[in-house]
Write the structure tokens for this entry.
Amino acid sequence: MEYLLIFGGLLVAFITLRVWFGARRAKIYAEIKKQKYNVMDPAMGKIAQPLKKNDRGPIG
């Protein structure tokens, strides 16, 4: 039973450190690119453009 608690604790610690270091690495990369850390990618705006009203024609 103790082994399960030890393994669970190590697993949680490993995942926490991995997420923390990944976020830290992403922040450093964004600073290198001279961007804000949580800014949406401008290319995403091109993908999610709203539809025009007259894009849809009659069905029949």
Remarks:
- Helices lie at 2-32, 42-47.
- The chain has one domain: 1-48.
- Residues 2-32 form the longest helix (31 residues).
